[in-house]
Amino acid sequence: MSQTTSAPASFAPALPRLTTTVPREYVHRAAVAEVLLTGWRKVEANRFRVWAQWPRGHSFFAPLRGVQHDPMLIAETVRQIGSLLAHAEFDVPLGFQFLMWHLDYALRPQHTTLESTPAELVLDVECSEIRRKGRSFGGMRYDVVIRRDGAIAATGSASYTCTSPEVYRRLRGDRLPGTPNVLGAPMRPRRVGRHSPFDVVLAEEDTPGAARWRLRADGRHPILFDHPVDHVPGMVLLEAARQAAAVLSPDPVILPTELTSSFHRYAELDSPIWIEATRETSTGGRSGPAATVVRGHQDDEVLFTCAVTSIRPRNAPVPPGDTAVNPSE
After folding, report:
1. InterPro entries from the xrefs (predicted)?
2. How many of the other CB atoms lie within 10 Å of CB of 127?
């Protein structure tokens, strides 16, 4: 009779930690491919560690001139953290609705460059200003420190409230998830730092040079509208702010190093949204930082405000034919 003996524990090969994504439902995404978070654990009361991965290539959050991760990945990562912790740690049932009140980030470009593998990130999250309705969780603020290879790559923060489906229906009335029907001819992609008209969220100006555009909310877009919604998502508004800053920049391929935003009300699908922007004068020449203040209006009410500080992607030569674009063209 044969007998199999096991190797001593000290000689057993170490199994690698297998990587997966968190449940897509926890981050409010329909497509698994759009889930950026890969795990989490509680550190202590209201403090958590989260893991994430940024891809080297993405159909929408594409690297900037092939050298820099798109900073809007930071914004989407921060957004996903809020809903993950609400469902996984604060017992918010799936199906509750979330309303973002602010989202900010600041990055360190030297630690967000593209490398030969996807960016593996460790995020330390501290939750505060936690709101409760009786025993139910009602919202919070959270601050995030994003590290890559031990170095701080970015910081961010956000705040939101959440409501039950019943309360949300009373709040929103008869508005149902659907497809936005307010479009318009897109601006030329190169003017907003994009390659495809499908990714442009600003319509051509009614008055050239006026720094005022109508939002193009195309519900067919698989990233910006990952699933049916009854209002324009906040990430669409932030992309509009980024593109508005790009239009006013001498070089439309910008690296938004800092972004601060506040949301004031729901952006409805069936009424025009106007995006207005003002660029402050840069003190560092073409490569120095410049700030752009963006405001969104709908039906004569302020939807959101956003300040974008941007520079040109470092160590990024201008590709042939990719010359600076005059905003008045």
Report:
1. AfsA-like, AfsA_hotdog_dom, HotDog_dom_sf
2. 19
